[in-house]
Amino acid sequence: MKKILLAGVALGVMTTCAFAADKVVKVGVLTDGSGPYADVGGVGSQLAAQLAIDESGLAAKGWKVELVYADHLNKVDVGTSIAREWFDQGKADVIVDTLNSGVALAVGQIVKDKNKVFLNSGAASSDLTGKACTPNQIHWTYDTYALANGTGKAMTKAGGDTWYFITADYAFGKALERDTTAVVAANGGKVVGNVYAPLNNADFSSQLLQAQSSKAKVIGLANAGGDSANAIKQAAEFGITQGGQKLAALLIFLSDVNALGLPVAQGLEFTVTYYWDLNDDTRAFADRFSQKSKAHAKPTMVQAGVYSSVLHYLKAVDALGSPTDGAAVVAKMKATPTDDQAFGKGSIREDGRKIHPAYLLQVKTPAESKYPWDYAKVIATIPADEAFRPLSQSECPLVKK
Amino acid sequence: MTHALAAKGPTASRPKPAEFIAFAVLAALLAVAPFALYPFFLATALCFALFASAFNLLVGYAGLLSFGHALFFGGAAYIAAHVAKVWGWPPELTLLAATAFVGLLGLVAGALSIRRQGIYFSMITLALAQMGYFVALQVPFTHGEDGIQGVPRGKLFGLIPLGDDRVMYYFVLVVFLCGLLAIYRIVHSPFGSVLKAIRENEPRAISLGYSVDSYKLAAFGLSAALAGLAGGTKALVTQSATLTDMHWSMSGEVILMVLLGGMGTMTGPVIGAIFVVAIPEVLNRIGGPDFAQWMTVIQGAIFVICVLAFRRGLIGEIAARLRRTL
Amino acid sequence: MIPLLGISTQALFGQLLLGLINGAFYAMLSLGLAVIFGMLNIVNFAHGALYMVGAFAAWFLLTYFHIGYWPALILAPLGVALFGMVIERTMLKRLAGLDHIYGLLLTFGLALIIQGVFQNQFGASGQPYPLPEQLKGGTNLGFMYLPTYRAWAVVFSLCVCLFTWFMIEKTRLGSVLRAATENPELTRAFGINVPRLITLTYGFGVGLAALAGVLAAPIYQVRPLMGADFIIVVFAVVVIGGMGSILGAIGAGFMLGIVEGLTKVFYPQAANIVVFVIMVAVLLVKPTGLFGKKL
């Protein structure tokens, strides 16, 4: 027994040495693979990471890039267990995606303790670049602040100066409402009221009725996933948008619009940082993605973020020659400007915030939609320097003031 | 009187050597396990194993199927996480606080629910757990769906730092074995015999002059407190407490663990818990994305197969073959 | 307009009406559960999943066979009922005579399997199902805008509920059914095929769930998890009404819809929880439920 054990250890040591000589980097995709957000990230995130690996050109430079995938089931203990195991057993140098803020915050701590890299694309909490920021993590795609800011500012400026919120009754919903309220007020608008809905609420008719009678010009939906879908569907039923009120979903993904269908979702306004039909580059990436996707789906912004972040990460690793020191890789990533087809040129701030423009989209009517996945038009662009929370307001301890 | 009753039940009150051997084998296996398996995973699994054993105390020996035990498991995790993180209490006091709080909560919940029987009892426990979930969502200290994160493991008795996963594992193992021993003692005490008598034939126990309700209440309180010990320990292991542990599906999961291992056996819930916790780990490892998607389907299939084919559970079946209690 | 507790009576009327409409869904689902419990002594945890299957069946018929809403209202429940009868024959039947717990656990497992399979096949965010052409639009009632479809849903489900109640309480078939519940041995002695009756009852119960699913498809997003949290609430409704009581299930369904509607006005966060508070209160005061017979 002892001999076998020793032999095993020796073999382990040898293989690690061999790997180091071969220049190996391992990417771990940790996401919601079977829960309510599986269409936003899930298998598509793995596909996006694979695309980034294939296109990074690292294989030609003598690198061996490995990809592992796991489903965290939206449970913190499962997520942290996987993360620890990946790191302790040398299965991953970097964790990407990680939808679900609770899991993301926990994984962020582990990544910091183990000095690895965490590139979050899927979680919404702006705490990841605030109180919970670490020198080992980058928050790539979006956060609650950016969504609130994008939708709130652009819609208020366009004349939607009275708002009514339907808010999911938990921390995330309240944060979205609070951030949007601040933006609306700063742009000369007014919030006339709000109503809470419990999480996983099926029927929104009561809340919609109150929103309707408030006569507010914009009804803001501070919720996500199935809650947003039901609220939007029932808003169509109650003739909210036909009545002249605008509907703003504060957190919704392309996959949700696809699931709702244009007849129901038409007229809905929402903010993204990536939409597949923006320009030739975004289309080119989306085409490559959808060709390999099982349902020929176009990527969501989360999946695009996974692609973009992995690509940039691999560049930094190649430049450094080794992925072992996570903080050094992140420092290198922050020092290098980003450039890829999905997000164009951008940068990463000292608090770990990836900076790029955001877009306020409006869902097209069925008549306006000309080809598959032609779902939305851009009605406002929020430039990169205005899209995210300014550093001066950051609670991140890494930011020197 | 107690003896006369106990002898009628399926398990006699005197400890059987087989049960003792099974226990010793389990302890020995768990002591060497971290050399072969991943200690963090094992530590989490042991927390669930203790949770399942605590649950089994109620369903397996007292015959009360609670559908709300997530309240105690998740509730204790929140208390422990808050006490350790915000108040900076050491781990031993943290666990004590969580266990005591949840034990009291269990007495209150038990006092309400044991007044009804069968499916109505289950429904009241479910309702109480749903209310607990609502409270956890509303009160500020739980931080909503983000949960309490970055809970320090601290130093045991101010001496042994628990930061290392392996050290933590052995601490959890000690907690787990103490918990299991406590359950063993309870089950094999005169008190345990009366519980089994109530499970087998309640009217008869009443006619024999036992105050059935106080026995049930005590069992409920003990089960809740031990579930709380498990939840508190889990909060220290994973360094977090979140809403998932309070959700009703967690109450369902613990039933799955006990059912799979074997209701009313000593080692069954432990094996069942380890099995259930290992499913996602194994699927994630061997299958990648296409396999992991089938997680819920596989869990469901286990339920169905267990109910249809092995109602006694894994250990229960083995014990039945060997004609011993394990 | 007289304001009442800070809410105008107008708004209150609107909320009451919406509550009634939601109550219609609760009533239909809890009715199915009550019928199954009364006859099979099984707490059917798969009810929520089968409600979801009903909604998906309607979507499936529309997408692949271009069969619209009206035929789906009949075809989908029939299909699901057939599926339910297969489940009863192959699995539930073997649990006869065992504790309630096993039926509950088995159907819980079935629910997990069904939801998991649908999630893998159709994605988590679900599929759209349009409003039927004839029921688009709505009427302005003065105090609120009432979509035509909601009005249809409440009227239709009320009819279904009353029809079921009439069938069970007032017809010969119903009396045989009730007799078989009370005393299966004796009923068999009268030359009635009790096992077949049980299978048909289960099919009917889950058919009702599927019917509610079709009815819900144009209102709610058709998602694999649409029934997962719903079912817990419906359980509470059945318990409040009294397990196995037909009239109780219907009455409690509508009543809870209204109570929930009122909660949404005064303390909306608690709308999900109010039903459980009522359940505990009812069980502690009147253990057999509001309309239940003696145990």
Task: Provide an overview of this structure.
The complex is a heterotrimer of chains A (401), B (326) and C (295). Helices cover 43% and strands 19% of the residues of chain A. Chain A is of the alpha/beta class and 401 residues long. Chain A has 2 domains: 20-142 and 279-356, Response regulator (Rossmann fold), CATH 3.40.50; 149-272 and 357-387, Response regulator (Rossmann fold, 3-Layer(aba) Sandwich). In chain A, the strands form 4 sheets. In chain A, strands 2-1-3-4-5 form a 5-stranded parallel sheet, sandwiched between helices. In chain A, strands 7-6-8-9 form a 4-stranded parallel sheet, with helices on both faces. In chain A, helix 5 runs parallel beside helix 6 and helix 12 (301-320) crosses helix 13 (326-335). The longest helix of chain A has 21 residues, at 2-22. The radius of gyration of chain A is 22 Å and the shape is globular. With 326 residues, chain B is an all-alpha fold. Chain B has one domain. Chain B contains 15 helices and 2 strands. In chain B, strands 1-2 form a two-stranded antiparallel sheet. In chain B, helix 3 (39-61) runs parallel beside helix 7, helix 4 packs across helix 10 (212-238) and helix 11 (248-261) crosses helix 12. The two termini of chain B are 25 Å apart. The model of chain B is unreliable at 1-13 (pLDDT under 50). Chain C has a domain at 17-127 and 144-225. In chain C, helix 1 (9-40) runs antiparallel to helix 8 and helix 5 crosses helix 6 (172-182). Chain C starts with a strand and ends in a 10-residue tail after the last helix. The interface between A and C is large, with 43 and 43 residues.
Q: Short description, anyone?
A:
Helix content of chain A is 43%, strand content 19%. With 401 residues, chain A is of the alpha/beta class. Chain A folds into 2 domains: 20-142 and 279-356, Rossmann fold, CATH 3.40.50; 149-272 and 357-387, Rossmann fold, CATH 3.40.50.2300.
